Amino acid sequence: MAAYRADDDYDYLFKVVLIGDSGVGKSNLLSRFTRNEFSLESKSTIGVEFATRSIRVDEKIIKAQIWDTAGQERYRAITSAYYRGAVGALIVYDTTRHVTFENVERWLKELRDHSDSNIVIMLVGNKADLRHLRAVSTEDAKTFAEKENTYFMETSALEAMNVEDSFTEVLTQIYHVVSRKALDIGNDPGALPKGQTINVGSKDDVSAVKKVGCCSS
Amino acid sequence: MKAKSPILNSPIVTLEHKRDAYGFAVRPQHVQRYREYSSIYKEEEEERSDRWKDFLERQSESAQASGQETVDSSDKATEGDDEAQKEEAPATHQAQIWAHIRPSLRAIEDIMNARVKQKIAVAKTEKLDETKNPALFEASTPVKPSIEDDSEEEFYDMERSESDPTPQLPSTVNASTESSIPWKEELECLVQGGVPMALRGELWQAFVGVKTHRIEKYYQNLLDHDTKNDNIIENQISQTENGSKTSSVESVICIPEKWKGQIEKDLPRTFPGHPALDDDGRNALRRLLTAYARHNPSVGYCQAMNFFAGLLLLLMPEENAFWALMGILDDYFEGYYSEEMIESQVDQLVFEELVRERFPKLVNHLDYLGVQVAWVSGPWFLSIFMNMLPWESVLRVWDVLLFQGNRVMLFQTALALMELYGPALVTTKDAGDAITLLQSLAGSTFDSSQLVLTACMGYQNVDESRLQVLRNKHRPAVEAALEERSKGLLMLKENKPGVKLSNGVLSRMSSESSNGDELYLGVSEDVEINSLPDLQEQILWLKNELCTILEEKRSATLRADELETALMEMVKEDNRRELSAKVEKLTREVAELHQALACKQEQENAMLQVLMRVEQEQRVTEDARVYAEQDAAAQRYAAQVLQEKYEAATTSLGEMEERLVMAESMLEATLQYQSGQHKAQPSPRSTNQEPSRKISLFGLGWRDKNKEKLGEEANHVKSSDELKSNGLQMEEVSLG
């Protein structure tokens, strides 16, 4: 399992967005993953919130920029601007509220409309610790995920269950996409020249950029 | 009856160590900084309380002089009615559901109310013209003058234009505005310096114009629908569409309470753990948000309102809070939290332009990192800095914002934050770092006075009229994007029949659910009517693509520029290195030359010394020569003298010889005379010969005598020496 480490040293930078209905626990998933914190008394997210964390995959350090978005419907016009350049997404629903699972389809469409086609998507059923309140079965969600060709995992930000794994899985898959791309180009992924921009998609200009020294440094 | 409800502005006495003076949570990383600043806050608070007290005393004096005392008794009567009607509400909230602003603040209230009335009047006339086009209505808002631009004349104009709806007020307002002009600037200064905690609730009400907005029993009526309409709403699925801002009772009834779920979700997520927001507090919050959503169904409920309502509830009684919230949302933030959130997107574009204009270097860097300013400033604006800045700073920003009567302070504060933290941002290396840094720096802006003053003083030229021009410039783009968005949804539905079915199911399900689905409902209606040709869709899609490509191009150019400048800098640096090498070399050479020079100087010195010695010697020899010459001269002189003496001696010798010759001749003559006498006698010749010999002998004899004399003298010396030596010999002998 990747350790928490300094942020200023990394091989890849991936932008990931957290989307889903209001109150499904996006902010707590983020705080659990980036700061290992959970709060039952969290506040509503207005617009977007942001955090980063670096993990290690195949001896490569991957820095994840994670955008946590407001869940309310009307904020979509604003939050969809944040999808641009994202190479990974976690669509979160609440396993205890079926309506949040129903809305996943719309989130999926929203995401596919505003982001790159190669984006790695994971369906995340949060609050899995509330077993007695479960309203969405794991099988249904799994079937849906297979149909939509996304990854799937059930998590609990409260119990810190699968949180690490879900993010790591998404980041690893993104890394594999990037490596494949590099292989397609005809190079060993390790032999990529420093400072090269690796585009996961054609529109991408922010993420998956190898660390480049800044001019003003 | 208590004077104030427990959640009113009484400062919280029991403070947890992680909560500030207002009862808000302080982030763990800021606890230390907060402690440092709490004493400063306390001092500032005392100072501003004194200043306000002084100001208000002077105001009340002048107010009493002008004799304006307008307390309508009807308000007091309804206060009682409110209490009677609200039986289900807990006693604490019943205690003061509505409160008047204290008389000392009446003058301020009046001037602010006048502004609100003016706005209402302007809005009314506009509504008559263009009731059906909210977008156009937005566009015409620049006509409204902001309070800063209010001049005496405008106040008069306003009073003339809106004398009908409120016939009882103009005279008093007239009086107060006349007197207000001289102290308005002072008031502005005071507000920028901060509003005292004890007055904040009432002053905010005055600023927003709660009294003018207030309609008797309106709040109560809105809440009364709560129980009646629950079942009606179930049956009546949306027949209304967004746009019309009618607040008539009928439309209120007909709107499905789709925001209810969202409000319920957000109630516990509004200032969680705040001591004043207990169950009663949350109930009040629910009522407030529900009432507003019913009052303005086109906006309904939007996340962020919960925080505003919560804050207002902490500062004022419930109904006052409702009118304040309504005033803020309808007047200050019109079109901001509506379903489309157009204005908030427009403001972001405006703000980006302002930042671009003010901080080109920072923006250049952010562009390079791929950071959009709106990513950070968006949440700032939407939450009016709540949870983004420390609370003291939030309240100070709100003071000015509410006083100004528009959103200018949002821009000023955000620009001030950019000014304060821009330099630090330029050092960041990637987008994530930049955003994290800006967020954390903003969150630690404890120096609220510095922030507010930087905002108000540094960005005075960012005013409402300027912002309106920029908003009008950017609005079409946002509206076009919105249109494309809704068309995009449409296109998908038409193209994918399979999905369409499931979407239809979905939209019905979600219309019952929490999220607002007006867009979807509107779309599904459109599907039947609309038969857009594919071509148009493609054009739209292509336009969209073009837009993104253009944007990419722009960022690429910017990046190229950035790289070029970087290259230039590197080249410059290279040059510098070369130059410095040259300089170094030159300095080395100079040093060598200096050394050589020193050597030469030393040599010169030595030479000089030698020269001096030589000179000295020369002088000595000269002296010697002079002496020698003098000696020579003296000797010559002596020689001459001797010569002279010798000559004199020779001449005298010559004379003597002559005399001698004369004497000899005389002697001969005498002898000849004597011989002549003797011739007669025998042989005179022989006798002749004899005397001559004698004379010569005589002559010689004299000479000899002289010689003898000299010899005798020498002999004498000789003999004395001999004597001495003889004596010595004798001594030797005697000794022997």
TrEMBL record, chain A:
GO cellular component, one term: endosome
GO molecular function: GTP binding; GTPase activity
Family: Belongs to the small GTPase superfamily. Rab family.
Pfam families in UniProt: Ras
Membrane topology: Lipid-anchor
GO biological process, one term: vesicle-mediated transport
Keyword check for Transferase: no
Coiled coil stretches, renumbered: none
Subcellular localization: Cell membrane
Keywords: GTP-binding, Lipoprotein, Membrane, Nucleotide-binding, Prenylation
InterPro entries recorded: P-loop_NTPase, Rab_GTPases_membrane_traffic, Small_GTP-bd, Small_GTPase
SMART domains: RAB, RAN, RAS, RHO
Protein name: Ras-related protein RABA1f
Keyword Membrane attached: yes
UniProtKB/TrEMBL annotation, chain B:
Basic and acidic residues: bias regions: 48-60, 702-724
Domain Rab-GAP TBC, residue spans: 194-405
GO molecular function: GTPase activator activity; small GTPase binding
Keyword Coiled coil: yes
Keywords assigned: Coiled coil
Region (Disordered): 42-96, 147-178, 673-736
A matching Pfam family: RabGAP-TBC
Coiled coil: 553-603
SMART domains with a match to the protein in the record: TBC
Biased composition (Polar residues): 61-71, 164-178, 673-690
Name of the protein: Rab-GAP TBC domain-containing protein
UniProt organism field: Lactuca saligna (Willowleaf lettuce)
Record lineage: Eukaryota, Viridiplantae, Streptophyta, Embryophyta, Tracheophyta
